[in-house]
Design brief:
Keywords: Membrane, Transmembrane, Transmembrane helix. The chain crosses the membrane at residues 21-42, 54-74, 104-124, 136-160, 181-200. It holds the Pfam family DUF624. With 232 residues, the protein is mostly helical. It has one domain. 86% of the residues lie in helices and 0% in strands. It has eleven helices and no strands. It has helices spanning 3-35, 38-50, 55-62, 66-83, 88-98, 100-126, 131-157, 162-175, 177-196, 198-201, 205-228. Helix 4 (66-83) packs across helix 11 (205-228). The protein is globular and about 60 Å long. 27% of the residues are buried.
Length: 232
């Protein structure tokens, strides 16, 4: 075998090894996320068939468990982006444990706020009140999503007290407005893909979306690390 052919084979083997590793990391982390969010997955998959009235508020309530597992998923994908390698199971559940309290409480607050805003929008529409009122509440929901998609990547990488975390999240949500918009687009794309091809995408779409969001967020996370984290 010539040296060229030998090097080519080694290159092909390395590429196959990397692809296999990334596929397994994405698949397994996605399975962990699903197992930790069974109420949400059930409502996402079967909810519209089981619940005929009031589906949306029940669906929103079913997301209450997402905070810690989503943060762990972001942490896992962020580490994978930085290091190109990861001890997945150990890292995922370590991240889950370390960020559980803060991510659970903040996610619960977000779910509550969105539930209240959705209730207000429903009330406005039911009473035929001016449409601009519901648009105001809808804009609040969008702002919450903007801030949330900045907040949880920050939690996944650093620890700040809640007050500083909220200020940082608000600041970077609008300082990096293009990143915030792209994160919203990523989430919308996930929802569309899941709704159209659920049987093919359920077992990787959450991890792929988390990877995309963390990759999109890496610049402002690096800025935070360089400017606000001591001894960095």
């Amino acid at each position: 075998m010539s040296l060229f052919n030998q090097n080519s084979k080694q290159f092909d083997d390395n590429i196959l090894y990397v692809i296999t590793n990334y596929f397994s990391w994405i698949f397994v982390s996605n399975v962990y996320f699903i197992l930790l969010n069974i109420p949400f997955i059930f409502m996402l998959t079967f909810g519209s068939l089981v619940v005929t009235e009031g589906y949306i508020p029940i669906f929103i309530a079913s997301t209450i468990t997402i905070g810690p597992s989503l943060t762990a998923l972001y942490s896992t994908m962020g580490k994978l982006i930085r290091d190109k390698d990861i001890s997945l199971t150990k890292s995922f559940f370590k991240f889950y444990k370390n960020s559980f309290k803060q991510s659970f409480l903040l996610w619960g607050l977000i779910v509550l706020l969105i539930e209240l805003l959705y209730f207000d929008i429903s009330l406005i529409n039911a009473n035929n009140l001016p449409a601009f009122l519901s648009n105001i509440f809808l804009s609040f929901i969008i702002i919450i999503l903007f801030i949330s998609l900045t907040m949880f990547p920050i939690i996944s990488r650093f620890y700040f007290n809640t007050k500083d975390l909220l200020k940082l999240s608000f600041f970077y949500s609008f300082k990096r407005i293009k990143h915030s918009i792209l994160n919203i687009i990523i989430v919308v794309a996930q929802i569309l893909i899941l709704s159209i091809y659920p049987q093919y995408t359920t077992f990787f779409v959450f991890s792929v979306g988390a990877y995309a969001i963390m990759y999109n967020s890496k610049d402002f996370l690096t800025e935070i690390e360089e400017t606000l984290i001591p001894n960095k």
